[in-house]
Specification:
With 399 residues, the protein is α/β, with parallel strands linked by helices. The chain folds into 2 domains: 14-205 and 353-394, Rossmann fold (3-Layer(aba) Sandwich), CATH 3.40.50.10540; 229-318, formyl-coa transferase, domain 3. It has helices at residues 23-33, 59-63, 77-87, 109-115, 139-145, 148-152, 165-188, 198-205, 207-216, 251-261, 264-268, 275-280, 282-293, 298-308, 325-330, 375-381, 386-394, and strands spanning 14-18, 37-42, 67-71, 92-95, 120-125, 193-197, 232-237, 243-248, 312-314, 333-337, 347-351, 356-357, 360-361. The strands form 4 sheets. It has a 6-stranded parallel beta sheet, sandwiched between helices. The chain has a 3-stranded antiparallel beta sheet with strand order 7-8-9. The protein is elongated.
Length: 399
């Protein structure tokens, strides 16, 4: 079945999003990929992520596919009125601005739900309501205060995770909340407000380490200094300076590990007979393994471990994933148009949502929109004439 002919689960659902950066756009993208009509409301100058450099350069094309764009000036009373009229046609409204920002324009949940009790409103914030909710949050901020940076870095050197984990997952949890609210609305006929937050997402991520302390009475060490649950579970530097991650996480895997690598003496050593025994002796076992494995190339170890069914992984850079044979073969990447920046108009492969529905990946139906690409179309759908749209432009209420 072609992408165009597929019946997606959220077809017929209209989402209006007032979002920027990563968290809010991720929530909208998840809903859009599943078939919702997602309308991105951008300010007159456009979403700032269209023009970010460095680590932000990929934000807009990654998180804004399958959406429409309308540019409205919310600070202009007539622009704000158009936004409210648009929201009146929506099943879902999503926003990720500072607390109180949307109320200034009558676009908060209380204002919009008064006229539409079926509305589902996704509010994506730095913190859920409480003592911290006045703070300005970033992914890095909550990673530092929520234990993740401590766990990722070396002792004394807290380190941000290498991607926007809280922004992306916070947006995903917001979308999960929307899906739950849609089911409940089908039962009760009423909508509700959904709240998702960066800090609480981060705490959820480190929750296993919190409970590790509760159970063992010992604080979790940062990952580079951790006491591993498995003896062989590490990155090894091998022949020619290459690196590869190798693991053996059970006694059966340890036996296979020794057999396929020719380490019969280690297999026969009674001191290493159980995983827990090997963990307690890691200080002497690991240097020995590193010395032995240095005789192999990464390619040789890959072939050996793949054939034996043992866990392994090459150390791959993000840019190398464009050519990953598994992603290519399974349709895990789809071309998106780069609508801004020096390569505007060109395409690049983007990662799709990591699940299938009916055996198929959810693809790109609409390219990331150019600024205000659908402004006229959407205003006309609200009943505005060409003259009325021209008037709004003349007073800079729309662009």
């Amino acid at each position: 079945m072609t992408e165009a002919a597929r019946k997606l689960p959220l077809e017929g659902l209209r989402v209006v999003e007032f979002t920027h950066m990563v968290m809010g756009p991720t929530c909208g993208m998840v809903l859009a990929d599943m078939g919702a009509e997602v309308i991105k409301v951008e300010p007159i100058e456009g979403d700032r992520t269209r023009h970010l450099l460095g680590s932000g350069a990929g934000f807009f094309p990654m998180f804004n596919r399958n959406k429409k764009s309308i540019q409205l000036n919310l600070q202009n009373p007539e622009g704000a009125e158009m936004a409210r009229r648009l929201c009146a046609t929506a099943d879902v409204v999503a926003e990720n601005f500072k607390p109180g920002s949307m109320a200034k324009y009558g676009l908060d949940y209380a204002s919009l739900s008064a006229a539409n009790s079926k509305l589902i409103y996704a509010s994506l914030k730095g913190f859920l309501p409480g003592p911290y909710d006045h703070r300005t949050a970033l992914d890095e901020v909550v990673q530092m205060m929520g234990g993740l940076a401590y766990m990722t870095g070396r002792p004394g050197d807290p380190l941000r995770a290498g991607t926007s984990v809280n922004d992306i997952m916070g947006g995903m949890f917001g979308a999960i909340g929307v899906l739950g609210a849609l089911i409940q609305r089908g039962i009760t006929g009423r909508g509700q407000e959904i709240q998702s937050a960066l800090f609480e997402n981060n705490v959820f991520l480190v929750g296993q380490h919190m409970l590790q302390y509760a159970i063992t009475g010992k604080a979790a060490e940062p990952m580079p200094n951790r006491i591993s649950a498995w003896a062989v579970y590490d990155v090894f530097t091998v022949k020619n300076g290459e690196q590869i991650f190798l693991a053996a996480v059970s006694d059966a895997q340890w036996a296979v590990f020794c057999d396929v690598l020719g380490f019969a003496d280690l297999k026969a050593d009674a001191r290493y007979s159980s995983n827990n025994a090997r963990v307690s002796l890691r200080a002497e076992l690991m240097p020995d393994l590193r010395r032995r494995l240095a005789a192999f190339t990464a390619a040789e170890l890959t072939a050996i471990f793949e054939k034996a069914g043992l866990p392994f992984a090459p150390i791959v850079k993000p840019e190398e994933l464009f050519d990953d044979p598994h992603l290519r073969a399974t349709g895990g990447l789809a071309d998106v148009r780069l609508s801004d920046g020096p390569r505007a108009g060109q395409t690049a492969p983007a990662a799709l949502l990591p699940f299938t529905m009916g055996g198929q990946r959810l693809g790109v139906r609409q390219q990331p929109p150019t600024q205000g690409e659908n402004t006229d179309e959407l205003l006309q759908s609200l009943g505005l004439s060409a003259a009325e749209i021209a008037h709004l432009r003349s007073i800079q209420a729309v662009a």
